[in-house]
Specification:
The protein has 2 domains: about 180 residues, FAD/NAD(P)-binding domain, CATH 3.50.50.60; about 80 residues, no CATH class. Helix 1 packs parallel to helix 6. The protein is an alpha+beta fold and about 280 residues long. It is globular. The structure holds flavin-adenine dinucleotide. The site of flavin-adenine dinucleotide (FAD) has 31 residues, from helix 1 and helix 2.
Length: about 280
């Protein structure tokens, strides 16, 4: 039996804890917040879109970059395994439009509670209000972590599950990048993804709250079309959001760091210019 230390009690940390404890290891999770899964709580507009009930090909096709990387992970623990796990944990789930899987209660808190209950049942120790400040390495191997109160915690293995850098109010402030660097990993340039866009023009911000359906969206970089979509778009106090914009952001991470982008919105994409003029 090994002693496994996990930094972060989010979605990844809780799952890692369950699996490691299931393999018979002694597990301790260190979470800086007062509870686990603060980000999971806000997912899927508070309903938590757990997984997708489509087949493996569907899943891989919706991965935007480096889908090959996920191939072995999906093979070892598929979306059906996720559904099976929550079934075992007693969480009723349902499948909605687009094969999206949600808890039947529509409450993300039920997802978190089912995971924390199982962690407790598997005797995983969770240290709340406990931020990890440092990861110590000895002879190129993990030695121990140091928590905010100065205490050292030794273990045979360390799992860094501190999340990314988005929504820092949920606890994910990017500490894991430093820990990973310390352990000898290379960190690539960080870029935002699945985010709304800021607009330069003041008039766009005056449209705040306006929600459009069935519109055509074309995004250009230096005049060259780099993205087009059809669907919903929302004006916000800083720019634009909604499904078409969020999807675009995940594909245009490089473009947005290079240049400001131009967006065209076609309010009546099903009508030609002649048909529109005739209508008036
Ligand atoms: C608005 C929104 C909606 C989303 N909707 C969905 C959805 O419906 N379905 C879906 O699958 N995904 C959704 N996501 C994405 C999903 O939330 C993330 O992919 C997921 O939470 C990542 O899990 P994680 O465990 O890697 O990181 P996180 O959930 O960010 O967890 C990291 C944890 O580590 C802790 N931590 C960080 N640093 C330290 C430290 N130094 N010491 C101790 N603890 C530390 C943090 O407090 C946090 O609890 C959504 C995200 C957002 C922002």
């Amino acid at each position: 039996m090994s002693r496994v230390l996990i930094v972060g009690g989010g979605a990844a940390g809780m799952m890692a804890g369950l699996i490691a404890a299931g393999c018979g290891h002694e597990v301790e999770i260190f979470e800086k917040n007062e509870k686990c899964g603060k980000k999971v709580y806000i997912t899927g507009k508070g309903r938590c879109n757990l997984t997708n009930a489509g087949d493996m090909e569907d899943l891989l096709n919706s991965v935007v970059t480096n889908k090959k990387f996920l191939y072995s992970a999906f093979n070892q623990f598929s979306n059906y395994d996720v559904m099976g796990l929550f079934d075992e944990l007693g969480l009723a789930i349902k499948v909605e439009r687009g094969n999206r899987v949600f808890p039947e209660s529509d409450k993300s808190s039920d997802v978190i509670n089912s995971l924390v209950r199982e962690l407790n049942r598997r005797n995983v120790t969770i240290h709340y209000h406990t931020a990890v400040k440092e990861v110590a390495v000895k002879e190129k191997a993990f030695s121990h972590i140091v928590t905010e109160d100065g205490k050292k915690h030794y273990g045979n293995a360390l799992i860094v599950a501190t999340g990314g850098k988005s929504y820092p109010s949920t606890g994910s402030t990017g500490d894991g990048y430093e820990f990973a660097k310390k352990m000898g990993h290379t960190i690539t340039k960080l870029t935002p993804a699945l985010v709304p866009f800021n607009a330069r023009e003041e008039y766009v911000k005056r449209l705040q709250g306006l929600s459009l359906r069935n519109v055509g969206v074309v995004i250009r970089e230096n005049g060259k079309e780099v993205y087009s979509d059809f669907g919903e778009l929302l004006f916000t106090h800083f720019g634009v959001s909604g499904p078409t914009v969020i999807s675009a952001s995940s594909l245009l991470t490089e473009n947005i760091t290079r240049n400001p982008l131009q967006m065209e919105i076609d309010l009546k994409p099903a009508l030609s210019e002649e048909q529109l003029i005739k209508g008036f």
